[in-house]
Amino acid sequence: MGMLKRFLSERPLRLPHIRPYVPRPSDPSIFWFNSERDDIVSDVVSRICQAHESDQSRLEMALNDAAFHEIRRLEKQRDDEARDRLGYWRSMIRRIGKMDASEQRRVLHTIVTNMARDVAGNFDPRVYRFARHAIPRMIGGVMEPRRLTQDLMASSPEAVGRVLRVQGDLDHLRYLQSQGSLVFVPTHSSNLDSIVLAQALEISGLPPVVYGAGKNLFTNPIISFFMHNLGAYRIDRRIRVSLYKDVLKLYSQVMIERGYHSLFFPGGTRSRSGMIERHLKLGLLGSAVEAFTTNQVRRIDRPVYFVPTTINYALVLEAETLIRDWLTEEGQARYIIEDDEFSRIDRWVAFFRKVVGMRGACIIRFGEPIDPFGNAVDGGGQSMTPTGRVIDPGGYVEHRGKPVVDEGRDAAYTRELGEVLATRYERDTVLMSTQVVAHVLFRDLVQSTPGMDLFSRLRLRGEIGIEREALCQELGEARDRLCALEARGRMHTSEVVKEDSPSEMLERALSFWNGYHDSTAASLEGNRVVLGDPSLLLYYQNRLVPYAEEIASGDRVQAACEIQKLGAHR
């Protein structure tokens, strides 16, 4: 382990010195990004400044808001950035009221330009071509560190293929990529999501995308190298300045306007509870809706297709930290977790070594695409009503026969789109064996502790046991009911859930949990399965909360009702 850490820290990834790549017409749109980068930044800055300069009071308010929030942030940070910038903001907040209009506009332009340049990404086709081969080999090398230190490029590229499955109508998506802008909107469980999703796009023949990534992730030397060069734009979640939020939203909007395929997580941050996201952040969704509207006003007929995507793990790298954060008061306010398993290379090694033997440890499901107004899209890329009638989505943004920008209207469309996506997430979720086993175990915990609240139950470590034979019978019943729901289009189950016997599914889940997580979710002791860490069981079972009552029978219905109530407080 120490040898691997030294290798990664002492040998930063570098490309061989080769001449710059000249994009070809057949290349994905993002290959042309660097030639447009300065113009994109200029466009973002110009549009934000124009919106504020037309109203003097709005301009002055924006400058005061920026100074106030940056002073508060930097005073808390007390780091090198604070030493460099705190004096500037303190001086500026004293001078804003004394500035004339011309100076205020100049300061606004400087602030917005600095923000936009810090956000804007970069794309190097050479790194992309390198990553297509290196990332699978790097993961293979993490599983076998000795081979990584000997020769990175010799490590097994099949490692990812053993654990990653991709589902969905890929032919449809491959056709749509040439017709308009694809916007992938996935669920968010782990900081690994961007990596596995990029790999899923690659093996599916889908284009690389522009995406936002938390600035804290750029501190990881491996992740940072690829993010800096593969289109990621940086999001500093510590910044509360309204102008900064405007920059992020408009940057995303301009990229979609210009035809760059994009990705963002509508949940905003990783699901701390492990539940399927329902309450989505609408800012970036709104940027895509507004991109479509703006293009219509400019008479640019470029469709925007949203692709609901679920990322489903049998084992989640950061599960223990995430559920602990959700269960504490600290988790109610904390947005960035800097000390979780993702930041530790030894946890990466343990995780990948554990999943290498798991059949379909991660399943990415690309759902049926929809237009910006929640309508289904047919094989030719046309929008359809629920009755199957083809319609023109441009009609949604017209007023008296002409397309117009209407912020209130577009905000309403965005809310409706968020509701459609939340529904699609439930329908496109793929339930994994560990989640099904965790749900049945947690349901038995609730069943055997009537009258207890959630936190009292979570303290019962090693005190509750279930007979193995009875548990397998329950698992079989739950699996059969899930398969029946799947046949009705309510959700999906993994091949392991479908094909393994209840006994095999139980053994597989216990094997996956034990030896990776610091605590033991459950263990087999003689003929009984003993619940070790109920909070881990809670995390994994939470994926089944929407279906709890439908898969319960007999005396388990009351316990299932209690579990389903967890979803009402998300």
Please describe what this structure looks like.
This protein is of the alpha/beta class and 570 residues long. It has three domains: 29-119, no CATH class; 163-209 and 261-348 and 360-428, no CATH class; 430-569, no CATH class. The protein is built from 24 helices and 17 strands. The strands form five sheets. It has a seven-stranded mixed beta sheet with strand order 1-7-6-2-5-3-4, with helices on both faces. α11 links the parallel β3 and β4 (232-235). The longest helix has 22 residues, at 56-77. The radius of gyration is 25 Å and the shape is globular. Residues 1-12 and 140-157 have low confidence and may be disordered.
In short:
With 570 residues, this protein is α/β, with parallel strands linked by helices.
Mean pLDDT: 86
Alpha-beta classification: alpha/beta
- Say how many strands there are: 17
Approximately what portion of the residues adopt beta-strand conformation?
5-15%
* Largest beta-sheet details: 7 strands, mixed
Shape: globular
Helical amount among residues, as a percent range? Answer: 40-55%
Q: What's the end-to-end separation, in Å? A: 39 Å
What does the radius of gyration come to?
25 Å
Adjacency order of strands in the biggest sheet:
1-7-6-2-5-3-4
Summed up, the domain count is: 3
Q: How many H/I helices?
A: 24
Ranges where pLDDT stays below 50 over 5 or more residues in a row are: 1-12, 140-157
